[in-house]
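fwd from M.: "can u put these together and see what the complex looks like"

so here's what she sent:
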Amino acid sequence: MNRFFAERALGMKASDIRELLELTQRPEIISLAGGLPNTKAFPAEQISEICKDILKNDSHIALQYSATEGIRQLRGALVDYMKSSFHVDGEVDNLIVTTGSQQALTLISMVLLNPGDLVLTTAPSYVGGIGAFRAFQAKMDTVAQDDEGLVIESLSEKLAELKTKGIKPKLIYVVPTFQNPAGVTMTEKRREEMLELATEYDVLVLEDDPYSRLRFEGQEVKPVKYFDYEGRVIFLGTMSKLLSPGLRVAWMLAPKDLSRKFAIAKQSADLCSTTFSQFIAYEFLKRGYLETHIEKIKAMYKKKRDIMLTAMDEHFPEGVTWTKPEGGMFSWVTMPEHMDSKLILMRAIKEDNVAFVIGSAFYPDGSGKNHMRLNFSHSSDDKLNEGIRRLGVTLKKEIED
Amino acid sequence: MNRFFAERALGMKASDIRELLELTQRPEIISLAGGLPNTKAFPAEQISEICKDILKNDSHIALQYSATEGIRQLRGALVDYMKSSFHVDGEVDNLIVTTGSQQALTLISMVLLNPGDLVLTTAPSYVGGIGAFRAFQAKMDTVAQDDEGLVIESLSEKLAELKTKGIKPKLIYVVPTFQNPAGVTMTEKRREEMLELATEYDVLVLEDDPYSRLRFEGQEVKPVKYFDYEGRVIFLGTMSKLLSPGLRVAWMLAPKDLSRKFAIAKQSADLCSTTFSQFIAYEFLKRGYLETHIEKIKAMYKKKRDIMLTAMDEHFPEGVTWTKPEGGMFSWVTMPEHMDSKLILMRAIKEDNVAFVIGSAFYPDGSGKNHMRLNFSHSSDDKLNEGIRRLGVTLKKEIED
């Protein structure tokens, strides 16, 4: 069938994560791999009540096709939510509901990226972003990241270096708060400095923010979009980590001229996102359930993070370090340089029945082998503790070998 | 913002339909334009019962992320459905759930079409297919269509002519049963002959079939996929016209090597389709509700088609002809060559408060000006009759002028 494929399809490969995750489906394995919310964090009863009401009163619109940009009432509610929870002034016309933030990543790639165009990401960066950019044959180059997020000096040097080569990146892609995979958060100062550089070099900024509402401690940090006086930032928000990923309700807030094109691209992509899900999300917001529910999730995940960090202190060998996220769902583990997380994963699965995601999945160039991503949101408290204990066993064996 | 757009985005324009439909939102307008199911055809009570059960028993999986290819139980049920209702043997591994058939059209374009690649469509053809191919910068060429669907001689000549020019099309795109927009159905003989030509010239066939289960009369025709001994046909099916378009549940059945790539492309596109919707569709099938429900829709739409055809006989002037579909949702009207449906639409909206879709929307080259598409599924019986009466008034004025 190869003769039929477009060039972009030749480079489409199942991600490392995907292939490896298939190995982790055995019931005896404790998986700290997936980036999944905890199923106990789904407000099933409230959704059930909402579904009943929608299907009684609004089925003629909730089961019908809807506007490509999203149903008007949800877009309005999300604009209000952007204001109340993110301090961002948006307009309904610039907000588009998407089928998960993943769709937004693809629409942005469709509209902005020619084959060979350059996207700057942090190293590491979110695997779904990398996948979308790659599917449209973009090139990627990376900027350093530390415990305070993207490193400004690294970005500044990279942009200057690219300019001398006559290369102008299209996008800077960041997950600035409780990053997937590293769990780190960019300071407000860096956010402002990043935007200044983006202006100086005329690059768009793509801010992907699935996690910021899940802050357990520390001071709230305003989104990059808050500092966007110019209209240079595309903001991605989602209900996936707060309400339910299975509803596939997310949104993008973008400068006006971009929004129009994104809407046209979305028309080709799926005509509209699931109308019924949009009604559920709207009612969940309107009935005031979201904020109470977020408090519940935060309490649940904070406890899990604490369990994980405590267990790592107890079980992980010397020479291994990890981030201490103030929110979100992930911690990022750094092992001695010579260690290869892919080999460690094989051993962890085979010998110790525990799984994680290898670091290289989060580097566009496949480096980052001495890292791994651990998820603390999905497992039960007991399994989390036991999973870290097992992984400690694997790591000690590897270091001793 | 133009400096940021990819080349493919420069050609992305809001469709004529979209712009014109905005004019038809006034309440006094009777719209025969949209391709929407009737809202009375939504089984809200059954869906409500199903939602209650899912959220009671399966919320931990129904509200979670799910496999990119779709939930296993729905894929299995759809394979059974392909066998029982389409006489097609499929395998679960080759069937992918999509976010509406529109997403399948885009995934296919992503995976198969380089800029400049050629797609053959009938003239007219479905506007959503044209939009998806165009978004990936494909070229399109057309093949004639008559009351028995795609004209084989036209396809044969076109393929031979292209061959002499050294051009090999990638895809033949057909909506072979109760076509959108024309309402016509390809005979089985032509389906087989089309496939023979596809084999001879080594072209893939894309069969888009949203309507075939909505047959009011006449003999059932087997899908093109039924005759696909070689694995050359991609079949698109959907729940949108049978259960609800707002759930966004459709599927594609494709040759194996293609399916794998489509799944990878879908991973970038939206990770997974709405899990909750997939559970609803699965339960609707499993509980045996679908077949009874289809009978109800067919009775409803047959009556509407009869109302429309009778009203056209009564109100449309001489020189205007139309197709008499045995199922589906559309009739296609042909006016004298010199008439321009765009001008007629302006007049119909302004003077007579009735709307339709102009023919040129369904021609990749923008021809087809003397045609219009009329939908009979969406309006109430009374409005349908009155809408046709009004349109008759507009047409008579146009012909007299």
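replying to her w this: Chain B has 14 helices and 14 strands.
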